[in-house]
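>> received
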Amino acid sequence: MNCKTIKEKVSIRTVLESFGKFPAKEHSKTAFYFALDREEEKPSLCVDFEKNIAFDFGTGKSYDVISIVQQIKKCSVSDALKYLSQFVDFYKAPVKKTIKEKSENYRIIKIQEIRHPALVDYLKSRKVLEQKDLVKEVHYQLGRKQGFGIGFQNNSKGFEIRNAYSKICLGKKDITLIQSEIKHKEIALFEGFFDYLTFRNLEQDNTPSCDYLVLNSTAMFFKAEEILREYDKILLFLDNDNNGVTLKTKIKNLYPNVEDCSLIFHDCKDLNEWWCREN
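>> returned
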């Protein structure tokens, strides 16, 4: 596998996620991440998803997917290509386990109901405050810094943490399967938990109409494959970006009865963006 093919076919977002790195601030085509090689208070690594490159404003360094792996793993180009080759066929075969197992040097200080005004306001801004009982307020220490955010627990007891300024995972990265006491024959599949919360807003009387599975990253789909085989129908609420569209195609090829519900929000990035626009 040559460098040109890797740079064209491997998403920079997927590579960063494989190391447990997520945007601190995100826009439609770009995002800011914390630096790859140092701790910092404000994110300085600007990632351009369309051009598939990154630029560190703190050091003046530019990165492509190969040099990102070299920087993080401290390895040669050859070793970086070996690492990246698994992502070329990312959606053609079951994905290998590449997500970083645990966030380093973290400690959860407190878990409680959502009370902090900043988190309440954030849920309001995403138009899902009605679903605050489905998430938690998590206070944590990560390295030398303390923070707090909206926490959504996954199957491995890790927490996806979100607030208006950051997006991280504490603990082991995993999917989140939510099943009701009565076994449903349908399951709704989401990339992130804000789309799940949005869907719960849409349900009549807030009564569960199906089971739910949140990937917490498209890179975690390999953990969902066998679970989805247990259902008669799969409802897809995946994002309208390259990763989401590619994964939709894979799922439609793997399972017999799939409904692509992204047509509802075809002109928006995801279900939550559509919901916020309409309400």
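>> The chain has nine helices and 15 strands.
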